[in-house]
Every structure is written in C-alpha cells, then in structure tokens.
Amino acid sequence: RIGRVSLPGATYFVTMCAARRQPVFASPDHARIATEALANLADANEVSWLAGTVMPDHLHVLFQLGDRLPLARVMAKLKGAITRRINHDLGSHLWQENAFEHRLRPDESAEAYAFYIFMNPYRAALCGNEATWPWWVCTDPARFQFLTLRRANRSPQPEWLDEAERISNQIVRR
C-alpha cells in the first residue's frame, strides 16, 4: 500500500477481511487454522503477538513488529499461511486485496486496542456476554489489566459493552 510505514519495534493494529466479507472463519476448523497461524508467526519470532480475535469474516490482530520483516511481509505471511491450509470455495482469493493497519502512536494505549479486539465478538452479538469467545488469542494475558477483571469463566463483565462502544468510536475516528 502506498504510504505504508513499517517501523521495527512499533505496535500495529491490523484488520484483514475475507474477500467479499464471506464468513470463511465461521467454520470452527477455519477459525482454528487462523489462530494457529497467529501462534506460528509468534513462535518463529517474526512478531510479538499481543492479541487477536478471529471473527466470521475478518481477523483483528495487535502485534509488535520484529526486526526482520516489514509490515507488508508479516501480513502476507499470515494471509498465506491461512490460505494454504483452508480448502475454500471462494475461487482463487480468500482475502480482500488490502488490509487496514494502524501504527499505535506513543500516546495510544495498546490496552484499549486489545480491549476493542477482545470485545469485538460481543459487540457483534456473536456470543452472549456470559460466554467465552473461543477464537480470542493473547500470548501474555498478564499484559492487559482488563483480562484480570474478567469473570471466572473468562467472559467480559456486563458493563464492558458500553465501554467497548466508546473505545470503538475512538479507534474508528483515528
């Protein structure tokens, strides 16, 4: 993408959508493949994953870029790893051509972005507030304060939906 800035060590929030917003990841097998692909890139020390969630038609990820690969290459590797393992009926394209990415500025909170990612399936009413979304990935739950405040079953507090809406409005405006 023209104007994309790739800074080693910077934290990025990225959204990657399936082509034509098809619900490819509504399949538990496909969602599992996507979460495994996130873990594999982290295991290869390509990035430091902070948080991610797999939605039926898109992924949200928050990560710190490593020193080896530029942002575009990390996104291409993630998309490629998922595409290779999914036998899909979408023709030759699983993904939309571009993705949304935002480099967090020093005054932006990774906590807020992780909270937004965590709450995304609840805001979309994909699961009840008392349930646990199975496709949430966080490599270091101690990093985020809100995760220590979840209910015993690891689901969000009921009042978090209002806060998630407020944070969503802030993130979307950036």
**Sequence of strands across the biggest β-sheet:** 4-1-3-2-5
Major β-sheet, in short? 5 strands, antiparallel
Helix content: 25-40%
SSE class: alpha+beta
Number of strands: 5
The total count of helices amounts to 5
| Secondary-structure element string | EHEEHEHEHH
Shape: globular
Walkthrough of the structure:
The chain is α+β, with helices and mostly antiparallel strands. It is 36% helix and 17% strand. It contains five helices and five strands. Strands 4-1-3-2-5 form a five-stranded antiparallel sheet, with helices on both faces. α1 (28-43) crosses α2. It starts with 10 loop residues before the first strand and ends with a helix. The relative contact order is 0.19.
In short:
This protein has 174 residues and is an alpha+beta fold.
What are the SSEs and their pairings?
Blueprint: E1 11-17, H1 28-43, E2 47-54, E3 58-65, H2 71-85, E4 100-103, H3 110-123, E5 136-137, H4 145-148, H5 160-173
Antiparallel strand pairs: 1-3, 1-4, 2-3, 2-5
Helix pairs in contact: 1-2, 3-5
Key descriptive features of the protein:
174 residues, alpha+beta, five-stranded antiparallel β-sheet, 5 helices, 17% strand
